[in-house]
Write a structure and sequence with these properties.
Radius of gyration of chain B: 15 Å
CATH superfamily of chain A: Hypothetical protein af1432
Oligomer: heterodimer
Mean pLDDT of chain B: 94
Radius of gyration of chain A: 19 Å
CATH architecture of chain A: Orthogonal Bundle
Distance between the termini of chain B: 19 Å
Largest sheet of chain B: 5 strands, mixed
Strand content of chain B: 25-35%
Mean pLDDT of chain A: 84
Order of helices and strands of chain B: EEEEEHHEHEEEE
CATH architecture of chain B: 2-Layer Sandwich
Shape of chain A: globular
Shape of chain B: globular
CATH topology of chain A: Hypothetical protein af1432
Number of helices of chain B: 3
Order of helices and strands of chain A: HHHHHHHHHHHHHHH
Helix content of chain B: 10-25%
Largest sheet of chain A: none
Largest interface: A-B, 39 and 41 residues
Distance between the termini of chain A: 37 Å
Number of domains of chain A: 1
Number of strands of chain A: 0
Structural class of chain B: alpha+beta
CATH class of chain B: Alpha Beta
CATH class of chain A: Mainly Alpha
Number of domains of chain B: 1
Low-confidence stretches of chain A: none
Number of strands of chain B: 10
Protein backbone atom coordinates (compact mmCIF):
# COMPACT_ATOMS: atom_id res chain seq x y z
CA UNK A 1 0.00 0.00 0.00
CA UNK A 2 1.36 3.44 -0.85
CA UNK A 3 1.94 5.76 2.07
CA UNK A 4 1.33 8.77 -0.14
CA UNK A 5 -2.24 9.39 1.07
CA UNK A 6 -1.55 9.55 4.82
CA UNK A 7 1.57 11.62 4.07
CA UNK A 8 -0.46 14.14 2.10
CA UNK A 9 -2.99 14.32 4.91
CA UNK A 10 -0.17 15.07 7.35
CA UNK A 11 0.67 18.25 5.42
CA UNK A 12 -1.67 20.15 7.72
CA UNK A 13 0.63 19.43 10.66
CA UNK A 14 3.67 21.29 9.30
CA UNK A 15 4.39 24.69 10.84
CA UNK A 16 3.33 27.47 8.51
CA UNK A 17 6.01 29.51 6.80
CA UNK A 18 6.37 32.93 8.45
CA UNK A 19 3.80 35.29 6.94
CA UNK A 20 6.11 38.30 6.87
CA UNK A 21 8.58 36.40 4.69
CA UNK A 22 5.88 35.16 2.31
CA UNK A 23 4.51 38.66 1.88
CA UNK A 24 7.90 40.20 1.15
CA UNK A 25 8.67 37.43 -1.35
CA UNK A 26 5.41 38.12 -3.14
CA UNK A 27 6.28 41.81 -3.32
CA UNK A 28 9.72 41.03 -4.72
CA UNK A 29 8.17 39.27 -7.69
CA UNK A 30 7.96 42.80 -9.01
CA UNK A 31 11.62 43.85 -9.40
CA UNK A 32 10.67 47.52 -9.24
CA UNK A 33 8.79 47.28 -5.97
CA UNK A 34 9.54 50.39 -3.88
CA UNK A 35 11.36 49.81 -0.59
CA UNK A 36 8.52 51.56 1.23
CA UNK A 37 6.17 48.66 0.39
CA UNK A 38 8.61 46.18 1.99
CA UNK A 39 8.87 48.40 5.05
CA UNK A 40 5.12 48.46 5.45
CA UNK A 41 5.05 44.68 5.64
CA UNK A 42 8.08 44.07 7.86
CA UNK A 43 7.52 46.82 10.42
CA UNK A 44 4.53 45.06 11.96
CA UNK A 45 6.60 42.07 12.97
CA UNK A 46 8.57 43.19 16.05
CA UNK A 47 10.58 39.98 16.40
CA UNK A 48 11.81 40.10 12.83
CA UNK A 49 12.54 43.83 13.07
CA UNK A 50 14.60 43.36 16.20
CA UNK A 51 16.55 40.46 14.71
CA UNK A 52 17.30 42.43 11.54
CA UNK A 53 18.61 45.37 13.54
CA UNK A 54 20.74 43.10 15.70
CA UNK A 55 22.33 41.53 12.65
CA UNK A 56 22.90 44.90 10.95
CA UNK A 57 24.67 46.13 14.09
CA UNK A 58 26.91 43.08 14.34
CA UNK A 59 30.60 43.61 13.69
CA UNK A 60 30.36 41.55 10.51
CA UNK A 61 28.57 44.18 8.52
CA UNK A 62 31.00 46.80 9.77
CA UNK A 63 28.57 49.67 9.25
CA UNK A 64 30.15 52.76 10.77
CA UNK A 65 27.00 54.19 12.27
CA UNK A 66 24.57 52.38 14.51
CA UNK A 67 21.59 51.11 12.52
CA UNK A 68 18.58 52.22 14.52
CA UNK A 69 15.62 51.85 12.22
CA UNK A 70 14.25 49.40 9.72
CA UNK A 71 14.43 52.13 7.11
CA UNK A 72 18.18 52.58 7.64
CA UNK A 73 18.66 48.81 7.50
CA UNK A 74 16.80 48.61 4.21
CA UNK A 75 18.91 51.39 2.69
CA UNK A 76 22.10 49.61 3.74
CA UNK A 77 21.08 46.07 2.75
CA UNK A 78 18.99 46.78 -0.33
CA UNK A 79 15.67 45.05 -1.05
CA UNK A 80 17.25 41.74 -1.99
CA UNK A 81 19.72 41.67 0.88
CA UNK A 82 16.88 42.32 3.29
CA UNK A 83 14.74 39.52 1.90
CA UNK A 84 17.67 37.09 1.95
CA UNK A 85 18.12 37.71 5.64
CA UNK A 86 14.39 37.31 6.23
CA UNK A 87 14.10 33.95 4.45
CA UNK A 88 17.22 32.70 6.22
CA UNK A 89 15.66 33.53 9.61
CA UNK A 90 12.38 31.91 8.51
CA UNK A 91 14.15 28.77 7.33
CA UNK A 92 16.07 28.47 10.61
CA UNK A 93 12.80 28.34 12.50
CA UNK A 94 11.50 25.54 10.25
CA UNK A 95 14.70 23.56 9.93
CA UNK A 96 16.11 23.61 13.45
CA UNK A 97 14.88 20.21 14.61
CA UNK A 98 16.84 17.01 13.94
CA UNK A 99 15.47 14.70 11.23
CA UNK A 100 16.37 11.17 12.32
CA UNK A 101 14.53 9.67 9.33
CA UNK A 102 17.26 11.22 7.19
CA UNK A 103 20.09 10.83 9.69
CA UNK A 104 20.31 14.61 10.13
CA UNK A 105 21.31 16.14 13.46
CA UNK A 106 19.87 19.32 14.95
CA UNK A 107 20.26 22.30 12.56
CA UNK A 108 21.97 20.09 9.99
CA UNK A 109 19.20 20.54 7.41
CA UNK A 110 19.47 24.28 7.93
CA UNK A 111 23.24 24.18 7.38
CA UNK A 112 22.77 22.19 4.21
CA UNK A 113 20.08 24.57 2.98
CA UNK A 114 22.09 27.71 3.68
CA UNK A 115 25.12 26.12 2.01
CA UNK A 116 22.99 25.45 -1.07
CA UNK A 117 21.62 28.97 -1.07
CA UNK A 118 25.07 30.57 -0.87
CA UNK A 119 26.47 28.17 -3.47
CA UNK A 120 23.55 28.95 -5.79
CA UNK A 121 24.66 32.58 -5.76
CA UNK A 122 28.19 31.61 -6.81
CA UNK A 123 26.69 29.50 -9.63
CA UNK A 124 24.42 32.34 -10.66
CA UNK A 125 27.45 34.60 -11.08
CA UNK A 126 29.24 31.88 -13.06
CA UNK A 127 26.44 31.57 -15.64
CA UNK A 128 26.16 35.37 -15.73
CA UNK A 129 22.49 35.12 -14.97
CA UNK A 130 20.88 38.32 -13.76
CA UNK A 131 20.52 38.52 -9.99
CA UNK A 132 17.38 36.67 -9.00
CA UNK A 133 16.27 36.65 -5.34
CA UNK A 134 14.04 33.65 -6.06
CA UNK A 135 17.06 31.38 -6.70
CA UNK A 136 18.41 32.05 -3.22
CA UNK A 137 15.03 31.28 -1.69
CA UNK A 138 14.41 28.21 -3.87
CA UNK A 139 17.81 26.81 -2.88
CA UNK A 140 17.17 27.57 0.77
CA UNK A 141 13.82 25.78 0.76
CA UNK A 142 14.57 22.94 -1.69
CA UNK A 143 14.52 20.19 0.98
CA UNK A 144 11.54 21.48 2.91
CA UNK A 145 9.62 18.28 2.05
CA UNK A 146 12.05 16.35 4.27
CA UNK A 147 10.58 18.02 7.36
CA UNK A 148 7.27 16.34 6.68
CA UNK A 149 8.58 13.10 5.22
CA UNK A 150 11.02 12.56 8.12
CA UNK A 151 8.51 10.61 10.20
CA UNK A 152 7.71 8.19 7.37
CA UNK A 153 11.31 7.90 6.18
CA UNK A 154 12.12 6.99 9.79
CA UNK A 155 9.56 4.19 9.85
CA UNK A 156 11.00 2.74 6.63
CA UNK A 157 14.60 3.69 7.41
CA UNK A 158 15.99 0.16 7.07
CA UNK A 159 14.16 -0.61 3.85
CA UNK A 160 15.28 2.62 2.15
CA UNK A 161 18.88 2.27 3.36
CA UNK A 162 19.16 -1.32 2.10
CA UNK A 163 17.82 -0.36 -1.31
CA UNK A 164 20.45 2.39 -1.54
CA UNK A 165 23.33 0.29 -0.22
CA UNK A 166 22.66 -2.92 -2.12
CA UNK A 167 20.96 -1.93 -5.35
CA UNK A 168 22.88 1.26 -6.24
CA UNK A 169 19.61 3.19 -6.17
CA UNK A 170 19.68 6.88 -5.42
CA UNK A 171 18.18 7.97 -2.11
CA UNK A 172 15.39 9.73 -4.02
CA UNK A 173 14.49 6.66 -6.10
CA UNK A 174 14.42 4.44 -3.01
CA UNK A 175 12.32 6.94 -1.07
CA UNK A 176 9.80 7.23 -3.88
CA UNK A 177 9.55 3.50 -4.31
CA UNK A 178 9.14 2.71 -0.62
CA UNK A 179 6.95 5.65 0.44
CA UNK A 180 5.05 6.30 -2.79
CA UNK A 181 6.18 9.93 -2.84
CA UNK A 182 9.55 11.70 -2.53
CA UNK A 183 10.61 14.80 -0.59
CA UNK A 184 10.94 16.95 -3.73
CA UNK A 185 7.35 16.24 -4.87
CA UNK A 186 6.06 16.74 -1.35
CA UNK A 187 8.05 19.94 -0.88
CA UNK A 188 6.52 21.31 -4.08
CA UNK A 189 3.03 20.57 -2.76
CA UNK A 190 3.89 22.19 0.54
CA UNK A 191 5.19 25.26 -1.32
CA UNK A 192 1.90 25.50 -3.20
CA UNK A 193 -0.04 25.27 0.01
CA UNK A 194 2.09 28.07 1.51
CA UNK A 195 1.36 30.07 -1.59
CA UNK A 196 5.05 30.51 -2.44
CA UNK A 197 5.81 32.11 -5.82
CA UNK A 198 5.45 29.64 -8.67
CA UNK A 199 9.14 29.77 -9.65
CA UNK A 200 10.16 28.71 -6.14
CA UNK A 201 7.67 25.83 -6.10
CA UNK A 202 9.20 24.54 -9.36
CA UNK A 203 12.75 24.77 -7.95
CA UNK A 204 11.70 22.75 -4.89
CA UNK A 205 9.71 20.13 -6.81
CA UNK A 206 12.33 19.52 -9.49
CA UNK A 207 15.60 20.05 -7.64
CA UNK A 208 16.63 16.44 -8.15
CA UNK A 209 15.58 15.99 -11.73
CA UNK A 210 15.96 18.91 -14.06
CA UNK A 211 15.85 17.45 -17.53
CA UNK A 212 17.80 19.87 -19.61
CA UNK A 213 18.98 23.48 -19.33
CA UNK A 214 17.08 24.29 -22.49
CA UNK A 215 13.83 22.83 -21.19
CA UNK A 216 14.00 23.74 -17.54
CA UNK A 217 14.41 27.22 -16.13
CA UNK A 218 18.07 27.96 -15.38
CA UNK A 219 17.08 28.49 -11.74
CA UNK A 220 16.03 24.83 -11.39
CA UNK A 221 19.33 23.62 -12.90
CA UNK A 222 21.34 25.82 -10.54
CA UNK A 223 19.47 24.68 -7.43
CA UNK A 224 20.03 21.09 -8.59
CA UNK A 225 23.76 21.66 -8.99
CA UNK A 226 24.09 23.53 -5.70
CA UNK A 227 22.39 20.64 -3.90
CA UNK A 228 24.51 17.98 -5.60
CA UNK A 229 27.70 19.88 -4.75
CA UNK A 230 26.73 20.25 -1.08
CA UNK A 231 25.81 16.58 -0.80
CA UNK A 232 29.06 15.66 -2.50
CA UNK A 233 31.01 17.61 0.09
CA UNK A 234 29.10 15.79 2.82
CA UNK A 235 27.24 18.91 3.97
CA UNK A 236 23.92 17.58 5.26
CA UNK A 237 24.35 14.31 3.35
CA UNK A 238 22.84 12.40 6.28
CA UNK A 239 22.13 8.69 6.40
CA UNK A 240 22.03 8.02 2.69
CA UNK A 241 25.34 9.73 2.16
CA UNK A 242 26.23 10.60 -1.36
CA UNK A 243 23.60 8.46 -3.08
CA UNK A 244 22.47 11.30 -5.36
CA UNK A 245 22.46 11.32 -9.13
CA UNK A 246 23.35 14.46 -11.09
CA UNK A 247 21.25 15.32 -14.13
CA UNK A 248 23.07 13.78 -17.09
CA UNK A 249 24.78 16.17 -19.51
CA UNK A 250 23.91 19.28 -17.52
CA UNK A 251 27.51 20.36 -16.97
CA UNK A 252 28.48 19.62 -20.55
CA UNK A 253 25.54 21.73 -21.73
CA UNK A 254 26.70 24.56 -19.51
CA UNK A 255 30.25 24.15 -20.85
CA UNK A 256 31.77 23.79 -17.38
CA UNK A 257 35.00 22.08 -16.44
CA UNK A 258 35.68 20.44 -13.06
CA UNK A 259 37.78 23.52 -12.31
CA UNK A 260 34.74 25.76 -12.76
CA UNK A 261 32.97 23.71 -10.12
CA UNK A 262 35.94 23.90 -7.76
CA UNK A 263 35.91 27.69 -8.10
CA UNK A 264 32.19 27.85 -7.29
CA UNK A 265 32.63 25.57 -4.27
CA UNK A 266 35.43 27.71 -2.93
CA UNK A 267 33.47 30.95 -3.42
CA UNK A 268 30.27 29.46 -1.96
CA UNK A 269 32.11 28.14 1.08
CA UNK A 270 33.61 31.50 2.02
CA UNK A 271 30.18 33.11 1.76
CA UNK A 272 28.71 30.35 3.93
CA UNK A 273 31.21 31.05 6.69
CA UNK A 274 30.14 34.67 6.62
CA UNK A 275 26.46 33.73 6.92
CA UNK A 276 27.19 31.37 9.79
CA UNK A 277 28.96 34.12 11.67
CA UNK A 278 26.05 36.43 10.92
CA UNK A 279 23.61 33.96 12.44
CA UNK A 280 25.80 33.42 15.46
CA UNK A 281 26.53 29.80 14.61
CA UNK A 282 29.90 28.26 15.42
CA UNK A 283 32.39 28.20 12.55
CA UNK A 284 33.80 24.86 13.54
CA UNK A 285 30.60 22.97 14.24
CA UNK A 286 29.12 20.13 12.30
CA UNK A 287 28.44 21.18 8.77
CA UNK B 1 37.50 12.97 26.82
CA UNK B 2 37.25 16.42 25.33
CA UNK B 3 36.45 16.69 21.63
CA UNK B 4 38.26 19.28 19.56
CA UNK B 5 36.38 19.77 16.31
CA UNK B 6 38.24 20.26 13.06
CA UNK B 7 35.88 22.21 10.79
CA UNK B 8 35.80 22.08 7.01
CA UNK B 9 38.86 23.79 5.52
CA UNK B 10 40.35 23.72 9.01
CA UNK B 11 43.29 22.13 10.80
CA UNK B 12 44.13 21.39 14.45
CA UNK B 13 47.16 19.95 16.24
CA UNK B 14 47.25 18.79 19.84
CA UNK B 15 49.52 17.28 22.46
CA UNK B 16 46.76 17.07 25.09
CA UNK B 17 46.30 13.45 26.18
CA UNK B 18 42.68 14.09 27.11
CA UNK B 19 41.66 15.36 23.68
CA UNK B 20 40.03 13.67 20.71
CA UNK B 21 40.35 15.40 17.36
CA UNK B 22 37.21 14.92 15.28
CA UNK B 23 36.05 16.00 11.88
CA UNK B 24 32.53 15.51 10.53
CA UNK B 25 30.98 15.54 7.07
CA UNK B 26 33.75 14.01 5.02
CA UNK B 27 32.16 13.50 1.62
CA UNK B 28 34.46 14.27 -1.27
CA UNK B 29 36.69 16.14 1.20
CA UNK B 30 39.66 14.38 2.76
CA UNK B 31 40.45 14.02 6.45
CA UNK B 32 44.16 13.54 7.06
CA UNK B 33 45.30 12.54 10.55
CA UNK B 34 48.93 12.27 11.62
CA UNK B 35 50.29 10.99 14.92
CA UNK B 36 53.67 10.57 16.57
CA UNK B 37 53.39 7.88 19.28
CA UNK B 38 56.62 8.91 20.97
CA UNK B 39 55.91 12.64 21.18
CA UNK B 40 52.18 11.91 21.63
CA UNK B 41 51.34 14.68 19.19
CA UNK B 42 48.41 14.45 16.80
CA UNK B 43 47.13 16.60 13.98
CA UNK B 44 44.14 16.61 11.69
CA UNK B 45 43.25 18.46 8.48
CA UNK B 46 39.93 18.58 6.61
CA UNK B 47 40.51 19.95 3.12
CA UNK B 48 37.93 20.48 0.37
CA UNK B 49 39.78 20.91 -2.90
CA UNK B 50 43.00 19.65 -4.47
CA UNK B 51 44.70 22.67 -5.92
CA UNK B 52 45.27 26.16 -4.52
CA UNK B 53 46.25 27.67 -7.88
CA UNK B 54 42.48 28.00 -8.32
CA UNK B 55 42.50 31.03 -6.02
CA UNK B 56 45.85 31.93 -4.41
CA UNK B 57 44.43 34.77 -2.32
CA UNK B 58 41.83 32.45 -0.77
CA UNK B 59 44.54 29.88 -0.17
CA UNK B 60 46.50 32.45 1.79
CA UNK B 61 43.50 33.37 3.88
CA UNK B 62 42.29 29.77 4.34
CA UNK B 63 45.17 27.35 3.58
CA UNK B 64 43.25 24.38 5.03
CA UNK B 65 40.85 24.57 2.10
CA UNK B 66 43.33 23.04 -0.38
CA UNK B 67 45.48 19.90 -0.32
CA UNK B 68 48.65 21.56 -1.57
CA UNK B 69 48.58 24.34 1.05
CA UNK B 70 46.89 22.46 3.91
CA UNK B 71 49.03 19.30 4.01
CA UNK B 72 52.41 21.05 4.38
CA UNK B 73 50.89 23.36 6.99
CA UNK B 74 49.58 20.42 9.03
CA UNK B 75 53.01 18.80 9.11
CA UNK B 76 54.77 22.06 9.94
CA UNK B 77 52.37 22.79 12.81
CA UNK B 78 52.89 19.27 14.19
CA UNK B 79 56.71 19.54 13.87
CA UNK B 80 56.69 22.59 16.13
CA UNK B 81 54.99 20.45 18.79
CA UNK B 82 57.57 17.67 18.51
CA UNK B 83 56.19 15.33 15.85
CA UNK B 84 58.84 13.72 13.69
CA UNK B 85 58.07 12.65 10.16
CA UNK B 86 59.85 9.29 10.35
CA UNK B 87 57.76 8.27 13.38
CA UNK B 88 54.46 9.64 12.12
CA UNK B 89 51.49 7.38 11.55
CA UNK B 90 49.35 8.65 8.66
CA UNK B 91 45.61 8.03 8.31
CA UNK B 92 43.44 9.10 5.37
CA UNK B 93 39.63 9.13 5.25
CA UNK B 94 37.05 10.52 2.77
CA UNK B 95 37.30 11.17 -0.95
CA UNK B 96 33.81 9.77 -1.64
CA UNK B 97 31.69 10.64 -4.63
CA UNK B 98 28.07 10.80 -5.74
CA UNK B 99 26.43 8.38 -8.22
CA UNK B 100 27.96 9.85 -11.34
CA UNK B 101 29.44 8.12 -14.37
CA UNK B 102 30.27 11.27 -16.31
CA UNK B 103 33.44 12.05 -14.35
CA UNK B 104 32.45 15.68 -13.83
CA UNK B 105 31.84 15.16 -10.12
CA UNK B 106 35.11 13.46 -9.25
CA UNK B 107 36.43 15.92 -6.66
CA UNK B 108 36.90 13.03 -4.21
CA UNK B 109 39.20 11.20 -6.59
CA UNK B 110 41.14 14.34 -7.45
CA UNK B 111 41.50 15.19 -3.75
CA UNK B 112 42.91 11.74 -3.07
CA UNK B 113 45.24 11.79 -6.10
CA UNK B 114 46.73 15.10 -4.98
CA UNK B 115 47.31 13.77 -1.47
CA UNK B 116 49.12 10.70 -2.81
CA UNK B 117 51.30 12.90 -4.97
CA UNK B 118 52.26 15.25 -2.14
CA UNK B 119 52.93 12.47 0.36
CA UNK B 120 54.94 10.45 -2.18
CA UNK B 121 57.12 13.44 -3.03
CA UNK B 122 57.86 13.87 0.65
CA UNK B 123 58.53 10.19 1.35
CA UNK B 124 55.52 9.77 3.58
CA UNK B 125 53.57 6.50 3.51
CA UNK B 126 49.91 6.06 4.35
CA UNK B 127 49.44 3.59 7.21
CA UNK B 128 45.70 3.23 7.11
CA UNK B 129 42.88 4.58 4.96
CA UNK B 130 39.17 4.41 4.28
CA UNK B 131 38.47 6.25 1.03
CA UNK B 132 36.07 6.34 -1.91
CA UNK B 133 32.56 4.91 -2.20
CA UNK B 134 29.33 6.86 -1.78
CA UNK B 135 29.34 7.38 1.99
CA UNK B 136 30.03 10.33 4.23
CA UNK B 137 32.36 9.74 7.13
CA UNK B 138 33.45 11.07 10.50
CA UNK B 139 37.09 10.70 11.61
CA UNK B 140 38.33 10.60 15.22
CA UNK B 141 41.89 10.63 16.57
CA UNK B 142 42.63 10.08 20.28
CA UNK B 143 45.63 12.24 21.09
CA UNK B 144 46.59 10.25 24.20
CA UNK B 145 46.82 6.89 22.40
CA UNK B 146 46.92 7.64 18.66
CA UNK B 147 43.94 5.36 18.06
CA UNK B 148 41.87 6.48 15.08
CA UNK B 149 38.27 5.62 14.25
CA UNK B 150 35.94 6.11 11.34
CA UNK B 151 32.15 6.29 11.53
CA UNK B 152 29.70 6.04 8.64
CA UNK B 153 25.90 6.39 9.00
CA UNK B 154 24.20 3.20 10.12
CA UNK B 155 27.52 1.44 10.85
CA UNK B 156 29.46 0.84 14.06
CA UNK B 157 32.66 2.83 14.67
CA UNK B 158 35.61 1.10 13.06
CA UNK B 159 39.21 1.40 14.21
CA UNK B 160 41.75 2.24 11.53
Amino acid sequence: MSLADPILEAMDKVKPFPQVVLKTLKLLEDPDVPASRLLEVIQYDPVVTLRLLQVCNSALFGFRRKVESLQQALVLLGNQGMVRLLVTFGALELMRDPLPGYGLEREELWHHSVACATLSQALLREVKHPEDPMVFTGALLHDVGKILLNEYAGKKYGEISIMVAEQQRSALEAEREVLGIDHAQLGGLLGERWNLPCSIVTMIARHHEPVHPRQDPMAVCLVHLANIMCVQMGIGAGARGLASRPAPDLLRELGWSPRTMDACISAGWCELERVRALMGLPQNGRA
Amino acid sequence: MRQRIVGIADMQVSAEDSEVLVTYSLGSCIGLAIYDPQARVGGMLHYMLPDSSLDPSKAQEKPGMFADTGIPLLFQAAYTMGLQKRRARVIVVGGAQILDDSGYFNIGKRNYAMLRKILWRNNVLIDSEDVGGNVNRTLYLEVGTGRAWVKTPGQEMREL
